[in-house]
Amino acid sequence: MTLEIELLPILGDNYCFILREPEKGVTAVVDPGTDGPVAARIEALGHGLDWILITHHHADHTGGNLGLKERFGCKIAGPAAEAARVPGIDVELGHGDTFTLGAETAAIIDTPGHTRGHISYHFAQSRALFCGDAMFVLGCGRLFEGDAEMMFRSFERLLALDDATRVYCGHEYTASNAKFALSVEGDNPDLQARAREIEALRAKDQPTVPSTIGQERATNPFARARSAEEFGRLRTLKDRF
Ligand code: ZN
Ligand code: FE
User: Fold this and answer.
1) What are the backbone dihedrals phi and psi of residue 63, each rounded to the nearest 5 degrees, phi first?
2) How many domains in the chain?
3) CATH number at residue 162
4) Model confidence over 134-160: pLDDT tens digits?
């Protein structure tokens, strides 16, 4: 059995993900930036809520924590290195830890750069990666607390995953990321094809998430950087784009 994963767009361009492990009947949400619409969807699904999984402390990823915990009595797991800034945290996770969700297990991967304690959740059986604001479709998170070297290493860890791994990132930034990607690697045929697909999806107001590790490796300029220096140059260009 694999995880059932539902995308819930919140707060304009954030994605909250609802995970259902059907075998043992366990439900989790990843990065609930707000409680109202998340609670409404959880109520509609009718399974309750057992866990909140947090990638990093920013309010657009944790703003729903306390409201959802009060309403559903769920537990909250998040990055140990940011525990003091994750409201309501019960379980602290770091690199090499595992998190059990019913019959599914996530490996915790440290992915600092956007924030210093940022973590990602890799459910290998379900081939699903929840990477918050580390890797985006065709982009990467802003370096608010870390540096290019740190984020380059984080990308290396994520890019080591199987090509078929689906990448569930925290924001729908893909259309603007595609413009930047084309500006630096406009002659990449895989990127050109992907940009056309993205344009078609966004024209119908459909999500571009998830992509896959294989797609990111072929088309994301940050995944194609061969050194931390090159990664840093790209990030600076993107900041000014
Ligand atoms: Zn963030
Ligand atoms: Fe965010």
Assistant:
1) -60, -25
2) 1
3) 3.60.15.10
4) 999 999 999 999 999 999 999 999 999
